[in-house]
Amino acid sequence: MSNLLHFSLSRNNITGPIPGTFKGLQKLQYLDLGNNGLQGSFIEEFCEMKSLGELYLNNNKLSGVLPTCLGNMSSIIRLYIGSNSLNSKIPSSLWSVIDILELDLSSNAFIGNLPPEIGNLRAIIALDLSGNNISRNIPSTIGLLKTLETLSLANNKLNESIPSSLGEMLSLTSLDLSQNMLTGVIPKSLESLLYLQNINFSYNRLQGEIPDGGHFKNFTAQSFIHNGALCGNPLLQVPKCRKQVKKWSMEKKLILKCILPIVVSAILVVACIILLKHNKRRKNENTLERGLSTLGAPRRISYYELVQATNGFNESNFLGSGGFGSVYQGKLLDGEMIAVKVIDLQSEAKSKSFDAECNAMRNLRHRNLVKIISSCSNLDFKSLVMEFMSNGSVDSWLYSNNYCLSFLQRLNIMIEVASALEYLHHGSSMPVVHCDLKPSNVLLDENMVAHVSDFGIAKLMDEGQSKTHTQTLATVGYLAPEYGSKGIVSVKGDVYSYGIMLMEIFTRRKPTDDMFVAELSLKTWISGSLPNSIMELLDSNLVQITGDQIDDISTHMSSIFSLALSCCEDSPEARINMADVIATLIKIKTLVVGANTV
Fold it and tell me: What residue ranges are annotated as transmembrane (predicted)?
C-alpha cells in the first residue's frame, strides 16, 4: 500500500516483532502501533521512512537498543516509545532531530546521562524521560528549550544540583524532577516562569529555602515532601528558615550610609550616558527577534536581515498583497530564498490575524503546508518568514493567459490540498480549521507541489470540540452555508470550500463569475449538467491541450464533479470526509496513469 498516509492498529492484542516491510510505506506520515503486545526491537527500517512524521510504539514489549539511525528521521515530529523494555543508552543522534515537537521515552530502562546536545531540540514542546536509569546531572543547556511546555525527568538517578537555567524555559507549564538524588537548592530563577502550573521536587535531597515568588505561592506541600533540609513557609510542612543576623561595625555602617550611595549614583550616571548615546542607533533595532517562539521553530531572523534580503522591501521584490498586508520575495545571506509576509498594523484585526496564524502554525508540520521559517515582531512591525514558492499561486496558473495546467497537474494539486486538510483536521494534536481555502491560498513550489498557506483566520478546535463560532467572514463564494449565515466554523466548512475549489480548478470558473446570477451558482450549474454535459463544464483550455485524450479524461470527470458535490452538501453532517476524498482521487489518478501507460 505504497500510497498509504495514515495507519493505526493501536489498542489491539497484536504480538510478535514489527515487520521490516514497513519501509515500503514511503509516503506514510502517521503510524500508531501503540498499546499492543509487540516484541523484539525498534526496527531500523523506520529510519528509512522519509515522510514519517508521527510514530507511536508506546505500551508494548519492545526490548534492546534504540538505533543510531534515529538521527536520520528528519521529518519526525512526534515519537512515543514509552512503557517498553528498551535498555540502551539514548543514541546521541536523537538530539539532532531539531524539528521534533513531542518525545516520550518514559518507563523503559535507558541508561547513561543527558548530554549538552539536548539543547538542540529548539522546537520541542513536550519531553518525557521519566522512569529510566538516567544518571549524573541535568545539563545547563536544557535552558535553551524555550518552547518546552512539559518536562518530566522523574524516577531516574539524576544527582548534583538543579541548573538555574531552567528559569529560562519561558513556556514551561509542568516540571517533574521527583524521585531522583538531586542536591542543593531550588533555583529562585523558577519564580520568573509565568506559565508554570505544576511542579514536583519530592523524594530528592534538596535543601535551603523554597522560593516564595511567582507561582510558588500556589504550590502545595506534596511538591516538596521527602527532601532532606528544605525550609520556608510552614504551610508547605517544612520548618521556617533561620535568618543569619550579622553585627555591622561602625565602619561598615558608614560605608553603607555615605560612600555606597555615591558609588551607586556614579554608576547610574554612567549608565544613563551610555543609554542616551546609543538610543538613536538602537531605536529601530528594537525587533524582538523571537523567531518562532510561538511556532515552535528554532530559526531566528532579525528585522535588519529581512531589510537586507528584500532590498529594503523594494518594489522589485513585491509579490502581492491581500487583506493582511504585503508579501515580498527575499534572499538571505546564505542564498536561501524566502517570502516575507508583512502585516499591516493599522487595524487591530490584522494584528490579530498575525497572532492567529502563528498560533495555528506553531505545531504543524506537513509537506503540503507552507513552511513557516521564522517570524519578526515588535510594536511597529510584524512579519512571517516563509519558504519561497517559486511557482506562485494556483489561482495565477489557473487564470493565466500564457500557461495551462494539465489534467494530471490539477488532479495532483487537489490530492495534495486534500492531504493537507486531512492532516489539519485529523492528523494534528489539535484540529485546525483553515476557514479560507481557495486557489489563491494554495502555492506551488519549484516541482509544482501544492502547499496550503495563509492561516490568518484559522481556528483551533479544543479537545472534543466539533465546531465553534466566529464573526470573521472569509472569501465570498467559498463559504459553507452555516459559516456565511450563522458564523459556525467546523472542519466540515473546509470540506465545503474544498468542493468549490475542486469544481473551479477543472471548470476555470470562479464561484463569483458573472454568469452565476439569481438561482444559478457554480454548484447548481455542475449538478444540473451531470452526467450528460461534461464537456460543457470543462475548462476550454484543458480540452484544447488534452487533444485526443479528452474522451478518456471526460469519463473520470463525472466522478470528480460528483465528489465535489458530495463535499458541498448543504448539511455539514452529509458532507464527505477528507480521507475518503483522498482515496477517491488517488483511485482516479491510478486509472488515468494506467491508461496513459498502456
Answer: 254-276
